[in-house]
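Input set for joint prediction.
Command: fold jointly, output tokens.
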Amino acid sequence: MMFVPSVESMLAFAAPQIGGSQALTSLALGLANEPAGLLPAREQMALSLGWHIVLACFGVAFPTMILVMHWRGVRRQDRVALVLARRWAKVSAVLFAIGAVSGTVLSFEMGLLWPGLMGTFGDVLGLPFAFEGLSFFVEAIFLGIYLYGWDRMPPRLHMLMLIPMAVAGVVGTFCVLAVNAWMNAPTGFDIVDGEVVNVQPWVAFLNDRVWLQFAHMWVAAFMVAGFAIASVYAVGILRGRNDRHHRLGFTVPFAFASVGAVAQPFIGHFLGLRVAATQPAKLAAFEMALETESPSPLRLGGIMIDGKVRFNIDIPGLGSLIARNSLTAPVQGLDTIPADQRPPVNITHIAFQSMVAIGTILMLAVLIYWIARWRGHDLLEPQTRFHRWFLRGAVLAAPLAIAALELGWIATEVGRQPWIVYGIMRTTEAAGENSGLWWLYGTTVVVYTALSWGAISILRSMARRWRAGEEDLPSPYGPEPVEHAPELARDEC
Amino acid sequence: MSVELAVAAAMFAGVIAYALFGGADFGTGFYDLTAGGTRRGAELRTQVDHSIGPVWEANHVWLIYVMVMWWTGFPQAFAAAMNTLILPMLFALLGIVLRGAAFAFRKYAATLTQARLFGAIFATSSLITPFFLGAAVGAIVSGRVPIEGRGEVWSSWLHSTSILGGLLAVGTSSFLAGTFLVADATRAGHHDLGVALRMRTIGVGIATGSVALLGLVPLRLDAPTLWDGLLGRALPMVMLSALAGVATLALLWTRRYRLARITAVLAVFGVVVGWGLAQYPWMLVDQIRVVDAAGAPATLRALLVAVAIAAVIVGPALGYLYTLTQSPTWTDSY
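tokens >
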């Protein structure tokens, strides 16, 4: 028999018609036979992906922001902009290095943690990875040229080295999201007698779902990087360093983040509409819809305890309007989904709604800033009544944007469970029998904590030395460095 | 050439590139580690920083390329290898993570103490990574990675062939790195550094050559399939490697560093290609052949398209990077 994954068959997935292979018929057995490697593999993936994804955002968005700054410096002979571009390049050298190695961790983990996925579907989902590798190559090459090209190349040509980096960031995002979109809506192959046949790698790569998912993540990358960089300068302004350097350093990344923050709710909305058609179980978990109601309410907050929803506020009709773009179309309830095919509802719902809440707050906050600015109130000016409040908010926007990013990934990944390949392969089948993976997890916690500490302390020491007037940050092996007094260092932080 | 073989060849081209370029980067760790105290080793460590700084990330991507080609082109063999070789792969991965991060951190470290810490991590992990990757190769070529089920998690790579593979990987990497560092240092006018590095590189070359020769003895019993291949199809490459290795030593001795770089690359190229030819037609030796391990034909063709696009885009870009980094403006001033 044949199983052609498509949007239509997904709708009928409540009774999956997969037959044949030993591996694939064991699907229905569910949690009873969880392999030893499942839970540690999940934790490991969550930690390493959750860590890398923040750096990936910088890899995607930072080159574009540096380009704008560098362009301004070159075009207008703006010294402040050039200094900022040069410093950002040095910061990106540190961030991209740990981004590159933590990305490598993920490519190893694909095989080490999920042998069932890679062994069965490696040739279906591999093509986007190949193009992702290609764009990583381009980014790494031009990063090397750009970082070391300062003062060694003609200024304009040197600046242009950022363009391939920026383009590679876009392509790379698209490729990675193509794989994730494929896991949500698998296509480009058939299953005959339990064997994966008739593989169409380009169909799997350019699946229907990738475009919106890509847009969502790409914009998120600009929000995370933009708010994070802007927050550094917001701290500086709050501490009284309200000079042109800080204002420019704030405004450029904040402008990028603002465009993202305004666009993101709309992209998210359209993406959500697709979920209703392709992954009803995920939407039901997002909305915590235990039963099908027409019209569906918008359920704010709420925790499911013993099969009942508690601590929630329902707004009648709004769920249908937001999730289905309709006054009457219901959100399909979880009760229509077989029990062994439901995702964990609480995590998915809370993560999803927290992301939406943060996204809404960020959108409103940037609108307030730009509308105020348009009306002639510069919220960065100390004379402005709200300036300190706004700046504190701008500082807070960085952790909020990162939180929204992580929550969004938790919502979509947990919401896809129990499937790793939606409707086709359960996560239990993809994991191996490595109970020893807990050692790996423990090691990763230690190593990533050390890396975070290393990166943060290096970046802070760079900022400290820049404030102290050292522009070049010479190699510590060069002439004896001037040791800063510890008191001074504390004050400056 | 069949499409399976073309993909395998493209993948192996990545292995060669990683062994040469990635190897030369990792190999600098040996000299960094043995450079002596902070004051005495400062010049060498600055040279290492300068030589691999612009290129290490690009060279690192060859590993990603190989992994992606492997799991996409030969998914079952990839899953089998990762399953059995989980430990050496994880140790290599740990080395990769620590090396890259510590290298970047050291460059911008504020104090000597921090630089010393990050430098020690960078140098040590630069040696760990090639060792364990070489050990993983040793497990594959000695037929210890089964295609079905899981092989021995420890003993698959704790045996003479894997130890040989690990030592050879560290040795060839350090030899390459030394030859390039000597040339870079001399060109930048650091003659004393060049002289010191030259003697150490010659030492590394002699040691690596000896390991390769002595290692052949257990190989005959431990990895007979590879042994037959090395003395058969791959013999010209083995000879090339030996000759080029000796020539490199002679050129280093007579201070002809530019030429020495070429022969050093040839020597390592010979080792790697010799291994590939000796292993052919096996993907996992004595377990599964390249043709049988291949994934879906449509994917293999798509991969070749991706490789062709990569060759057009990445090839010139890499060439530009290397041309710039070897040009006088980039090498003379720092």
